[in-house]
Design brief:
Number of strands: 21
Number of helices: 14
CATH architecture of the largest domain: 3-Layer(bba) Sandwich
Largest sheet: 6 strands, antiparallel, barrel
Number of domains: 3
CATH superfamily of the largest domain: FAD/NAD(P)-binding domain
Bound molecules: flavin-adenine dinucleotide
Radius of gyration: 25 Å
CATH class of the largest domain: Alpha Beta
Shape: elongated
CATH topology of the largest domain: FAD/NAD(P)-binding domain
Strand order of the largest sheet: 13-16-15-14-17-18
């Protein structure tokens, strides 16, 4: 007799779990509360879908509970990037590697990932029931009962793959957390991760629209480093954004929780526009530029050395308007060099769930067996972003969603 497996949530993790369970002989249905499955997948990687990353290790993941690292290491060993790639090849999707390690569909279109997954679900006769909002899971003896807003379902195994709270319009509206609460499971309250920082900085309006290759570090009130990264930083009218800012943002809540702090405003994002130059060397370069063009205004002398928005920002900060290069004192040039390497953007808030790429927090991994099965409720599995683990930008979150779906899907069908 075929095992009856129900998957709640037709996102990255749920779809892959359903395919693997069906391949292992189960009769599978997906219950999805949106009108279509795979809505978030379509948005991933700027519409290109960064499936996984060849350069992958536990250092690419954050959890608020350090003890969970053993679980994470074990899971990452169970499904390597190569195995995720093989899975996609097995559903007829060719892949390509860009920038040395970032794996994408060969078409560079997330729509082809979703259509290949849908085709495989169809081939395996997986039932897709949309517009079914699941609000309860209960277990009596060996029977699991799932209740949606339309009907109730019985199953031998259930995989809960409801995602987190980010981009709720794609369906991940946080209702997975309601299910965790109902089952009295331990979880860390969700928080926004891989997101932009809203800052108190009076230069935001001037700098808005700028993009710079720079480093960003998050510092606490004692100037200890919480996290840092390098890459293209985007300056906006509310603060800072871009991949390196996303990467450091994910480390903020784990830091606050670890140090039992609640106040985000003790933290500052420090930007170094010249990370490869010592401050003294930068001072000499600025000094040379201003000497060379000593009879020009500060704005004219600095043209070509810095973008005009940075010149405008420094001119206004130091009152250098109408000053000639030769009139600028060495002490000010020293201060300019210092500032360009230590631009402090005090953090007010993180951009919230409507904008963040992933949800931090989630189910304590200690609630799970290595097969992603709940210790308290055997045959109930939890996968993907609903778990207390966040990956870096670069394919790491989808990798986690896929690997947890694959492991749970196989065990659920056994
Ligand atoms: C803009 C954007 C770009 C991204 N790009 C990348 C990328 O390129 N690479 C990468 O690795 N990661 C990327 N991510 C992150 C990645 O998309 C997620 O981590 C991943 O989709 C999580 O998979 P999941 O299956 O756990 O959840 P989701 O994909 O969110 O799926 C959850 C599903 O469950 C359904 N659901 C929720 N609650 C219920 C309920 N109660 N009843 C029924 N159905 C329910 C939802 O409608 C949804 O379909 C990106 C995220 C965003 C927002």
């Amino acid at each position: 007799m075929k095992k009856r497996v129900l998957v709640i949530g037709g996102g990255a993790s749920g779809i892959v779990a359903a395919i693997v369970a069906a391949r292992h002989g189960a009769s599978v249905s997906i219950l999805e509360h949106q009108d279509k499955i795979g809505k978030k997948l379509l948005l991933t990687g700027n519409g290109k879908c960064n499936l996984t990353n060849l350069n992958l290790g536990s250092s690419n993941y954050v959890t608020t509970n350090h003890e969970d690292m053993d679980f994470i290491n074990h899971a990452l060993k169970a499904y390597s990037p190569q195995q995720v790639i093989s899975f996609f090849h097995s559903i007829g999707l060719r892949t390509t590697v860009l920038r040395d390690s970032y794996v994408y569909p060969e078409t560079e279109a997330s729509a082809s990932v979703v259509s290949a997954l849908l085709r495989e679900l169809q081939k395996l006769h997986v039932e897709i029931l949309t517009n079914q909002h699941v609000s309860s899971i209960s277990k009596k003896d060996n029977h699991i009962c799932i209740i949606s807003d339309k009907q109730s379902f019985g199953a031998d195994s259930v995989i809960v793959a409801c995602g987190g709270k980010s981009y709720p319009k794609t369906g991940s509206d946080g209702s997975g957390f309601d299910l965790l609460r109902q089952m009295h499971l331990q979880y860390v309250e969700p928080y926004p991760a891989l997101t932009s920082l809203i800052c108190n900085h009076n230069g935001c309006k001037i700098l808005s629209g700028m993009r710079n290759q720079a480093s960003v570090s998050i510092l606490d009130s004692k100037h200890s480093m919480v996290a840092s990264d390098y890459g293209q930083i985007q300056f906006t009218d509310y603060g800072i954004s871009g991949i390196p800012v996303f990467q450091v943002s994910s480390k903020i809540y784990p830091y606050l929780l670890k140090h039992k702090k609640t106040c985000l405003t003790d933290l500052t994002a420090r930007i170094d526009l010249f990370p490869y130059a010592e401050e003294e060397k930068l001072f000499l370069q600025l000094d040379r530029q201003l000497n060379e063009y000593h009879s020009f205004s500060f704005e004219e002398a600095m043209s070509g050395f810095l973008h005009k928005k940075w010149i405008q920002f420094l001119t206004s900060k130091y009152g250098l308007s109408n000053k000639k290069g030769k009139e600028i004192r060495k002490s000010i040039i020293k201060q300019l060099a210092h500032d360009l390497k230590n631009l402090d953007f005090p953090i007010r808030e993180l951009k919230g769930f409507d904008f963040c790429q992933v949800t931090g927090g989630g189910l304590d991994l200690s609630e799970l067996t290595p097969d992603f099965e709940l210790k308290k409720y055997p045959s109930v599995f939890i996968t993907g972003e609903l778990l207390n683990i966040t990956g870096d930008c670069g394919g790491y979150n989808l990798h986690w969603a896929f690997l947890s779906g694959m492991i749970a899907g196989k065990k659920a069908a056994d």
